[in-house]
Amino acid sequence: MKKSVLVLFAALSLSACGLFPPPYKVPVTQGNLITEEQRSQLQIGMSESQVTFLLGTPLLRDTFKPNEWHYMYTSRYADADTKQSEAEDLVLIFNNGTLTQITNN
């Protein structure tokens, strides 16, 4: 008798877990959120300080290619309310301190 009550109680307890809504997952965003407005203001010939003022500090500056700046953005557990970046990987290449090439991967 005690064993059947214990089994019944365990079965009801485990089935109750399915009644609750799934737990909230916090969207984890990393990198530089770049809007279309910021992207449209970016122009060839800008200085490094102008680009830094417009977009912020790049996420990655390659040690072997110091004139190549990477602005990356990732988001996990994204839903409809999570802000998304227009550019997920924006690569800017400078020559003598001026912007010469813009690549949006």
Task: Describe the model.
There is one protein chain. By secondary structure, this protein is α+β, with helices and mostly antiparallel strands. It has one domain: 2-Layer Sandwich (Beta-lactamase Inhibitory Protein, Chain:B, domain 1), CATH 3.30.1450. Helix content is 28%, strand content 28%. The chain is built from three helices and five strands, in the order H-E-H-H-E-E-E-E. It has helices at residues 2-16, 36-41, 48-55; strands at 28-31, 60-61, 68-76, 89-95, 98-104. Strands 1, 2, 3, 4 and 5 form a five-stranded antiparallel beta sheet that branches. Strand 2 and strand 3 (68-76) form a beta hairpin. The longest helix is centred in the N-terminal third of the chain and has 15 residues, at 2-16. The chain starts with a helix and ends with a strand. The mean pLDDT is 81. Residues 31-101 form the Outer membrane protein assembly factor BamE domain. One of its GO terms (biological process) is protein insertion into membrane.
